[in-house]
Structures are given as structure tokens and as C-alpha cells.
Design goal:
By secondary structure, the chain is an all-alpha fold. The chain is built from three helices and no strands.
Length: 96
């Protein structure tokens, strides 16, 4: 609700980043140990499918989006960078 309403959006994005990091880690652990877990994570209805690399790809994509949104909310810079520009700008030195 924080992301939709705009209230406390920075905190809401941080919570999303942390939860998606934990979830991605759990999926990576299950895949690396060849565990057959039917979680129903991305299924609609009652047909649970096992965790696959596609599940991990979807989760890490959501995690990456959440990280980008968090960086944007902290630094307040546009996410898109124009050709020839840097995302981090050096401070301007004023001499008199």
C-alpha cells in the first residue's frame, strides 16, 4: 500500500528489496541443492509447479526492479540515463 499511495514509499521499497532478496536466496538454495519443492509461487489456482530456473529468473527480475526503485527513491535521480551522461555527476567546483 505504501508504493501505491506514495506514503512511506522509500520504506515500502526497502521492505520489498529485503523480502525479495530473502526469497531469491531461498529459491537459489533450493535449486542448488536439487530440492523438489512445489510452492505454487507463480501459479494461479491449485496446480502447484516445482521451483525451476524460470522461477528464479522471475524473482531476481522483481528484485532488480525493486533495487532500481529504491536507488531512485533515495537519490531522487531519473532512472533513465541519456547517451553521453553519467549516472553519478561530479560536484561542480566554483572558483573566485
Amino acid at each position: 500500500m505504501g508504493l501505491i499511495s506514495g506514503l512511506l514509499s522509500q520504506g515500502a521499497v526497502l521492505v520489498a528489496v529485503v523480502l525479495l532478496a530473502i526469497y531469491s536466496g531461498a529459491i537459489a538454495f533450493a535449486l542448488s541443492h536439487h530440492l523438489q519443492i512445489d510452492c505454487g509461487c507463480f501459479d494461479l489456482g491449485n496446480n502447484a509447479s516445482p521451483i525451476t530456473r524460470m522461477t528464479f529468473a522471475r524473482t531476481t527480475t522483481l528484485f532488480a526492479i525493486a533495487v532500481i526503485l529504491f536507488i531512485h527513491s533515495v537519490f531522487g535521480r531519473p532512472i533513465a540515463i541519456r547517451r553521453g551522461e553519467s549516472a553519478i555527476q561530479a560536484p561542480k567546483i566554483v572558483t573566485q
